[in-house]
Amino acid sequence: MDAGGFVNARPAKNAPLVIGPNTPRPNPAVKPVNPRDPVAVKPKPKTPLVQEPLVINGKKPTIVDPKVDPVALMKKLSKDPKRMWNQAIDWTVTDPSLIVAVADFLMDFDEYGHAAEVLKGNLRKGLSTDEWAHEALTVALQMSKADPVEVERAALSAMDLDPKSAKAYLKGAKAEAELKHNDLAVRFCQKAAEFGPDQPGPYANALAYAVDAQNVTPDTVAWAAVNLLHRDWPTTDGVDYHARTRALLPKFVSKYQAAGIEADSVRKALLEQTQRDLVIELLWQGPADLDLVVAEPVGSTCSATDKRTTAGGVLQADILDLKDDPNGNEGGRSEIYTAASAFSGVYKVKVKAALGRPIGNSATLKVTKFKGTPRESFDLISVDLAHQQPVEIKLDGGSRTE
User: Fold this and answer.
1) Helix (H, G, I), strand (E, B), or coil: what is residue 204?
2) Beta 362-371 vs 276-284: how paired, if at all?
3) How far is CA 303 from CA 218, 332, 342, in A?
4) Pair 273, 299: CB distance under 8 Å
5) Angle CA(382)–CA(388)–CA(389) in degrees, nearest 5?
6) Are the C-beta atoms of residues 51 and 42 closer than 8 Å to each other?
7) How far is the C-alpha of 375 from the C-alpha of 381, rounded, in Å?
8) CA 300 → CA 82, 248, 290, 323, 334, distances in Å?
9) How far is C-alpha 190 from the chain's CA centre?
10) Which of 18, 96, 241, 322 has the fewest CB within 10 Å, making it most exposed?
11) How far apart are CA 142 and CA 130, in angstroms?
């Protein structure tokens, strides 16, 4: 060790190991590197991750698979749009979401003809045969002014896809009406009613298409009108089905009279429009919100969360009479349950306080049976909200049977 107390940087061969102050302890796990070791001086080159391609006969090989090489693919594509999109989809596309994106992009730029071919290619390959694909194809064909026969075939394909869907038959009816096939459109509406009897759409559309139909009978018109007028429908869709029906029926009567066709069934439908088997009105005064709940004999329940039941019950909720009385009190409030064609049996009625407290903490049930008929009767039942029990209302001779 030199005078500075440091380890000699160049120890003699076989010289003893000398440790001075602040000298780190040697790590036995680390092998010292000999500067004369050829591996340390010139490390062995590693094999590169990407190797140069082979050269055969002086040429580099190229990929010619059209599924991989876009240049080769473009050269093979037809210039005819009716073949081009079908080829491109058949060769490369496996993800249905790509079809959605391309069709949407093309429609945004009014390229409806190209969009139609994209959707056709999708259906041919079977990437997505869901309802949306048929609907989109129908729209694209209509916008591109395609052959009406082709538009009709696309519109009706949804019925083949789901032969028990009321919605599919209604779309088919619309397509036929646009092609001026109104008689067929009405028949499709009748078919839709078989699978959606508690929906207003089949009946309302049947009446609308029947106006310009050639061979729709008065009985068919009466069928649609009775189903609309003898039921109460929620107005959440903004359509007053009763008002529309009442406006159309006189026109049908005049049409059939001019053609010399008896239309008694249509007149009868118009006269009997107000008949209801059961009407239950919940009435109260004051700044409160009460909810009417009706348990029907067949096990269904009509309430604020289920305003139309399969048993024919319909609830019109939160009706406010804006006419204040002379003393300055707020107008009356009500909720109304109706069953135009009701089941016989016991209806269990409950009143729930959703918000606030009505005057006197009480309400009244007005129960009308067989409204609009010679059998009409009504009762007033007081409900004490502090100690209320379900009110049982028995109906004998309802229009419907289990």
Assistant:
1) helix
2) antiparallel
3) 36, 20, 16
4) no
5) 100
6) no
7) 20
8) 53, 33, 20, 35, 22
9) 22
10) 322
11) 19
pLDDT for 268 beyond 80: yes
**Do 128 and 99 touch, CB atoms closer than 8 A?**
yes
pLDDT band at 33 (very low <50, low <70, confident <90, very high): low
Q: Say if CB 192 and CB 202 are below 8 A apart.
A: yes
Listed residue (355, 354, 321, 345) closest to 394, CA to CA: 345
What's the rounded Cα separation, in Å, for the pair 276 and 199?
18
Tell me how long the chain is.
402
9, amino acid identity: A
pTM > 0.85: yes or no = no
Looking at residue 379, its pLDDT comes to: 94
CA distances from 36 to 28, 32, 213 (A): 20, 12, 104
Q: For residue 46, what are its two tokens?
A: 């590693």
Give the pLDDT score at 202.
Answer: 95
User: pLDDT tier at 345 (50, 70, 90 boundaries)?
Assistant: very high
Question: Alpha-carbon distance 83 to 349, whole Å?
Answer: 65
CA trace torsion 271, 277, 283, 288 (10° rounding): -110
d(CA 375, CA 232): 20
**pLDDT tens per residue across span 101-149:** 888 899 898 999 899 888 888 888 888 777 788 888 888 888 888 888 8
* Residue of 266, 279, 265, 401 lying closest to 340 (CA atoms): 279
Please tell me what DSSP assigns to residue 361: G
Beta carbons of 317 and 232 less than 8 angstroms apart = no
> What backbone phi and psi angles, to 5 degrees, belong to 333?
-125, 155
**C-alpha–C-alpha distance, residues 143 and 133, integer Å:** 15
Residue type, 140: A
